[in-house]
Amino acid sequence: MHYSISTYTLFHLSIDQAIERLIHDGWKSIEVMGEGKYHGRPLLYMEQMKLKEIASLVKKNNVSLGFHLPVTGFNPASVDESTETIWAKCLSIMEVIDVNYVLLHPGTNTSIQAGIESTALFIKKMLRDLPEMIKIVIENVPYKEGSIGTSIEELISIIDHVNDDRVGIMLDTGHCYMNAQEHFLKECEKAFPYLYGLHINDNHGQHDEHLQIGEGVIPFKQFFLRLGKRDIEYVLETNTIKRAEHSKLHIEKFLTKSTRCNLRVSIESDYKYER
Ligand SMILES: [Zn+2]
């Protein structure tokens, strides 16, 4: 199990400053947010020298990275010139900076079916373009008319179309709760067999607030009980570092409890067996 932190926690800083600060704070796994006019977006236009500086800092400190691809203008669900251009730029960034995975939002299409098929086709191209060890992770997004990937079924359908085990799901707890509300736990469980990782953040069900666990109303205790301990990426995607650290402590508490609970269940069942 890996804890990772999103540079979204330092959205007010430029991406190089944010990465530097998180490394300085001791984080060993970081998700680089490629969005935000003054944050991740400038990565697309960054000089090679600067990219190389980031790469060497990351390497020197043994940090692993994930790359949250830009959202605006990047639309695998209905590919256009801008999508192709942004992808080409992202590829050239990844020639300098090593990442373990790239994360994408499928984007929008007036037809869900066409959006799913287009996203799958584009992911196949991405798989060909990327080195073998880099995974592709699809994220569930909040409901908006025409958006693809608002339900876990749509993500699974994309994965089925691609049919490659380099592709998985990043389950965003906040987005899932906004869409599924009281069916949140059931909806999450559908993603479990395909999980690459989690974007962990809390909210009140209306807005994407990126709060720490416990500040909103998402039933995280039951969530982690159902999830159990898994070898996945736990990406803390809150709007401050403090909130990320807080969420991490909460998760550790939940996981110790759920392990104890599982242990009790197995002791009880052993006991029954002996009788
Ligand atoms: Zn997210």
TrEMBL record:
GO terms for biological process: DNA repair. GO terms for molecular function: DNA binding; zinc ion binding. Pfam families: AP_endonuc_2. Residues 26-239 form the Xylose isomerase-like TIM barrel domain. Gene3D superfamilies: Divalent-metal-dependent TIM barrel enzymes (3.20.20.150). InterPro entries: AP_endonuc_2, IolE/XylAMocC-like, Xyl_isomerase-like_sf, Xyl_isomerase-like_TIM-brl. PANTHER family: HYDROXYPYRUVATE ISOMERASE, XYLOSE ISOMERASE-LIKE TIM BARREL DOMAIN-CONTAINING PROTEIN. This is Xylose isomerase-like TIM barrel domain-containing protein.
